[in-house]
Amino acid sequence: MKLRPWFLVVVALAALGLLAAPQLILSAPRETTMGLVQKIFYYHVPSAWICFLSAFVCAAGSAMYLFKSSEAGDRLAVSAAELTVLFGSCMLVTGPLWGRKAWGVYWVWDVRLTTALLLFIIFIAYLFARRYGGPGSRKLCAGLALFGAADVPLIYFSVSIWRTIHPKTTVVSSLGRGMGIPFAFSMLTFTILYIALLEMRMALERARARVDELHIEAEDAGLEN
Amino acid sequence: MPDWKTDMKRIFVILFFAFFLGGAALAQEAPKKDAEGFEAVNGDMMQSGESIPGSRLVGAAYGFICFAMVVWVASVARRARRLEDEVDELKKKLAR
Predict the structure, then answer these.
(1) How do the domains of chain A map onto residue ranges?
(2) Cβ within 8 Å of residue A22, ≥6 positions away
(3) Residue A35: strand pairing partners
(4) Does the distance separating the beta carbons of A40 and B45 come in below 8 Å?
(5) Which ipTM score applies to this complex?
(6) How many helices (H) and strands (E) does chain A have?
(7) Strand ranges in B1-96 using DSSP code E only, listed in sequence order
(8) CA distance A152 to chain B (A)
């Protein structure tokens, strides 16, 4: 599996960020009404941000595949879809843990939570269809990815449109320096980590494409049926 | 040993230590006084009737993220190993 030359630099930056982020988060002021549990915010929001970003990356790759038959686009899409599920699971686990303390329950069928769960399910469906869908599933999945990405604005704006228990998006812009700096650092660290993980997953797809080429060569040479 | 195996091991070790050293730092929190109007408090602010301490929920959230990342990286490494074996086998076939 061949990784790009910049990959180890990105991994090192992500590791440094992951080491420094807890220190910054701990030094951030403790929120008055929720106390310590509010610190989940510094992991929950970046997980959600990366989940949404990854859904858009997957949609972009899928569009490249659908409209330009780009194999690289397809590789990008499947890699990003897996990361959407990974960070989506982080978002959907850390959120209820925070909610348990803030709201008294792990889960409510609130529009923000429900649409976020829907996004997660769509990308789980994407991965299942890719794995078991057989020939033609790549185009089907590309369409599904575009459909999934369309859910992201709905999730983001849901708190502004409907009455919901979930905090509004304005909470981020209202953070003071004490909470804002650790939050921004955490967002940056997760973004760098995402770039590293995406490259790692894409390297796997490139290796898979190479294996397919070798299978074709072996078939042409009469070595395989 | 092929290059990717060495790379995967390095990535695995770096991520493992980054997450778990971060987790250790999280366990050593000391409340700090700030100058921005946030109210400094001691303890967990557990309300009456509340049974789960906030520190446990924060630990569970951080722990889950560490676990998910490590499992995913291990899964990619396992899949890469399988592909590498397949490439070796195909190259041998083609060389004959």
Answers:
(1) 21-27+36-167+184-219
(2) B22, B23, B25, B26, B62
(3) A31
(4) no
(5) 0.90
(6) 8, 0
(7) none
(8) 22
Test B17 with A15 for CB contact under 8 angstroms: yes
Q: Alpha-carbon Rg of chain A, whole angstroms?
A: 20
CA distance A182 to chain B (A): 14
Chain B residues closer than 8 Å to A183 by CB: none
How distant is the Cα of B88 from the closest Cα of chain A, in angstroms? 10
SS3 A31: strand
Cβ contact, residue pair A1, B4, below 8 Å: yes
In tens digits, chain A (225 residues) has pLDDT values of 788 888 999 999 999 999 999 899 988 988 888 888 899 999 999 999 999 999 999 999 999 999 999 999 999 999 999 999 999 999 999 999 999 888 888 999 999 999 999 999 999 999 999 999 988 899 999 999 999 999 999 999 999 888 888 988 888 888 888 899 999 999 999 999 999 999 999 999 999 998 988 888 888 888 776
CA distances from A78 to A12, A97, A107, A144 (A): 25, 29, 29, 12
Of A22, A94, A177, the CB nearest to B26: A22
* pTM, to two decimals: 0.83
Nearest-by-Cβ selection for A208 from B69, B72, B83: B83
The whole-angstrom separation of Cα A125 and Cα A128 is 5
Residue with tokens 């921005």: B36
Q: Report d(CA A123, CA A216) in Å as an integer.
A: 30
